[in-house]
Structure formats: C-alpha cells, structure tokens
C-alpha cells in the first residue's frame, strides 16, 4: 500500500457514500461533500445485485445488507401482461450464488453513511467550482467554503456540476417513457409473496414489483409512455388513479397492488450517451455523473458500487504524484464496460416494451437474457483493479 491520499468526494448519494466506505477500508483519507442539508433518499426501492453485494461484503456491510434488504429468490418470474408466465428471472450469478436484494433507498443511504467515521460527511456543501494544478485540486462551495485534495471524485449525479470540468456539457437523452414508483406496506397485501422479483411485460409498458426492508414493504414500478409536459419536469408527484388506469386491463394481481397505492411519484426516463472521457488530471467521475443509464437492467447504483471499489483499490496503491495516471487506469477499467451496460439497458427497455406483434421473439429474448444476467452478476472488478494498479507501479 502507498500513501494516505486525501480524497474529496462530491455527492453523498449511493455512489459517493459507497466510494467513501471502500476508500476508508483501504486506508485513504476521505471527506464527502453533499449539497442537501441532510443525507436522504426518495421513498422507493433499489435492486441490489451480486456484482455489488460482493463489494458491500468486502467493506464490512454484508450483514447490514442482509438485515435491511429483502432477499430475492428463485421464484422470480417474467409474465405477459395478462399474467401468463414467460420465463424465470435469473437472480443468481454464474456460480449459482443467490445475492439479489430489494432495498429501500433510504435504508441503503443510511447503512452506507452509518459506517463512515464521524465528521466524514459535510452536508450543506454544494460544489460550484473546481480548479487544479499539477500538485493539488480545489473545490469551491456555494456556502463560501473550499476543500483541497489530492483527488476529487465527482459523484454528483446525472446533472453533475463538476462533469463540465472533464468534458464539455452534453444534453441528457429523453427516451419517451416515464416510471411511476412507490411502496405499499405488507399489511395492505398480507398474502403477497415477499421472496421474489416479478415483472409483467406488455405492449409499450411494463410493471415490476419486489420486496424491500425485510419484506415489510413491496416496491412497485410502472413504466409507461410519457407526454411532452413530463419530459420537462423530470420528477413530480403522480396521480394514483392515472397509474391504475394505465394497467387496468392487465393481470388482476397488478390491480391488487395498485388498489393499495395512495401516493406515487413519477420520473421521466433520461440517460446520456456514453462519455468519451471521465477523467482530467486529479478529477474523475463516478456513478450517474459518469454514466447515467435507464433503469431497465437495474444497474445504475450497482455499477456505481463497482466504480467505487475499482477506484478505491487503485488509489490505495499509489502516491500523490501518480494520481492522474491512477485515475486514467480507473477510467480504462470502467468506461467501456459501463458503456456496454448503459447500451444494454436501452436495449432491454426496447425489448420489454416491445410493440411489435411478435411476442414470441420478445419472450425468447427474455429467456435468453438469463445468461447475460449471470455474467453481469459474476463480474468482480476488484482483482482487475488490483492488476491495473500493479501495472502502474511496474
Ligand atoms: C426509476 C428508476 C429505478 C432505478 N432502479 C435501480 C435499481 O433497481 N438498481 C440500481 O442499481 N439502480 C437503479 N436506478 C439507478 C440509480 O438510482 C442511480 O444510478 C443511482 O442512484 C446513482 O447514484 P449516484 O450516487 O451516482 O447519484 P445520485 O443518487 O444522483 O446522488 C448524487 C448526490 O450528489 C448530490 N449533489 C448533486 N449536485 C451536487 C453538488 N453540486 N454538490 C454537492 N452534492 C451534489 C445530490 O444531492 C445527491 O445526493 C434507478 C433509477 C430510476 C430513475
């Protein structure tokens, strides 16, 4: 191991908080700066898959994931919109390891923050400026504060303030869909099976559910075509009756869930084209700041976890003078792999929302998709990051 680099992580979302955990576990000196007055997340679920769970375990968060998550088992299934079965959903990696969990997003942020040392997270710090020279990097905040570090990690989400310091501004791509999201408590669905991920795919829409918080809540997401007004608003409260109407002729099981919905939120679905660069000097991007993607593979946060493990593993092995080369090595390891996942999420969205009459083709693709998931989940970025760091030192 090399020096105790000083790292400033901008953004205290799932990506930034995990990166801080991974870096502290590897001996780096990290401070997280979050714009909001307090850490938090929306009332919705996130699907955590084995390619992230193995890193959460490595930094000592395995039991917290078991404690707060809901383990997803092999009864998971794809259905047609009328409820007829299509295929099982792959929920283990290529070795057969079952480590998919449904997680409440607020629980995820809380368990990531709980492991950090007191004083590691500075809330109320909105980054508004960045400068660097060959020795150091500096972030300026709206509250007048500034932070100097050997490395700055922009984990500040799809609208990243710092990304233009790496690459000229780009426009997010709208995909014509929106998602309704929310949670229903188990008491309102007492006999709903809380051990599986289920999706119904129909013409131009799909609906999915999975349990969170030890099976005490069911997370639902309904994907539907969006109107132009929604395109501009990004996220907003939704109307439960409109959501119910969107799926009213579908499998009555969906109706059972939606009858219990009192409150829902809707998100317009955006991503960006894969970026040609993530890094400039001592500044690099991580998570949605680097690779915002559509949610159709459930991988945005999982890929951010892989980013954090890769970056921590490389930075822990270099000293301050080698930071720019180390960040290039991180980018080289991550950028193309994540671009493939970004594009895969687009393809999967087109697949499940297929409007062509040929559902046999769609169903065959959903069956075949199991192999893709097995490989995605089996990937372990840590040994590759270690090898990349060793190559730097030679
Ligand atoms: C409908 C939907 C469903 C999804 N489902 C899944 C799923 O099942 N599994 C999955 O893996 N992913 C899923 N995702 C994607 C996932 O939510 C994101 O990829 C993930 O949250 C990105 O984390 P992040 O930390 O990079 O960014 P964010 O969560 O956006 O966090 C960025 C943080 O930076 C802060 N910030 C912003 N600007 C500044 C600034 N200037 N200064 C300081 N702080 C700042 C923000 O306040 C925020 O806390 C889904 C997304 C959507 C829309």
Describe this structure in words.
- The protein is α+β, with helices and mostly antiparallel strands and 394 residues long.
- The protein has a domain at 6-70 and 104-171 and 273-354 and 380-393: FAD/NAD(P)-binding domain, CATH 3.50.50.
- Helix content is 35%, strand content 26%.
- It contains eleven helices and 20 strands.
- β15 (205-212) and β16 form a beta hairpin.
- The radius of gyration is 21 Å and the shape is globular.
- The model has no long low-confidence stretch (mean pLDDT 94).
- It binds flavin-adenine dinucleotide.
- Flavin-adenine dinucleotide is lined by residues 10-16, 33-36, 46-47, 126-127, 155-157, 161, 179, 181, 221, 267, 287-288, 295, 298-302, 304.
Short summary:
The protein has eleven helices and 20 strands. By secondary structure, the chain is α+β, with helices and mostly antiparallel strands.
């Amino acid at each position: 191991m090399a020096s105790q680099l000083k790292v400033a992580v901008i953004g205290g979302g799932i990506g930034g908080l995990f990166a801080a955990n991974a870096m502290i576990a590897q001996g780096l000196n990290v401070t997280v700066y979050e714009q909001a007055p307090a850490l938090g997340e929306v009332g919705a679920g996130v699907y955590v898959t084995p390619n992230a769970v193995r890193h959460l375990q490595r930094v000592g968060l395995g039991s917290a994931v078991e404690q707060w998550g809901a383990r997803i088992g092999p009864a998971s299934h794809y259905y047609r919109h009328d409820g007829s079965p299509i295929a099982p959903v792959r929920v283990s990696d290529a070795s057969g390891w079952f480590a998919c969990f449904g997680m409440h997003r607020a629980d995820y942020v809380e368990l990531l923050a709980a492991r950090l040392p007191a004083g590691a997270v500075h809330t109320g710090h909105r980054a508004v400026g960045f400068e660097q020279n060959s020795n150091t990097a500096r972030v300026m905040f709206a509250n007048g504060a500034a932070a100097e570090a050997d490395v700055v990690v922009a984990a500040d989400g799809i609208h990243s303030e710092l990304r233009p310091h790496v690459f000229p501004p780009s426009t997010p791509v709208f995909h014509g869909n929106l998602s309704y999201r929310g949670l229903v408590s188990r008491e309102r669905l007492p006999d709903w099976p809380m051990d599986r991920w289920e999706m119904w795919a129909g013409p131009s829409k799909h609906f999915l559910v999975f349990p969170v918080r030890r099976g005490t809540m069911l997370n639902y997401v309904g994907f539907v075509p969006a109107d132009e007004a929604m395109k501009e608003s990004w996220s907003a409260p939704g109307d439960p009756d409109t959501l119910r109407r969107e799926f009213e002729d579908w499998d009555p099981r969906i109706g059972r869930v939606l009858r219990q919905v009192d409150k829902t939120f809707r998100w317009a679905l955006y991503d960006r084209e894969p970026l040609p660069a993530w890094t400039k000097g001592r500044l690099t991007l991580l998570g949605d700041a680097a690779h915002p993607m559509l949610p159709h593979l459930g991988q945005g946060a999982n890929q951010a976890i892989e980013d954090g493990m890769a970056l921590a593993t490389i930075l822990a092995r270099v000293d301050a003078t080698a930071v720019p080369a180390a960040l290039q090595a991180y980018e080289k390891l991550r950028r193309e792999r994540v671009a493939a996942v970004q594009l895969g999420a687009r393809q999967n969205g087109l697949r499940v929302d297929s409007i062509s009459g040929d559902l046999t083709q769609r169903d065959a693709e959903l069956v075949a998709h199991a192999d893709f998931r097995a490989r995605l989940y089996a990937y372990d970025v840590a040994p590759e990051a270690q090898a990349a760091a060793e190559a730097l030192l030679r």
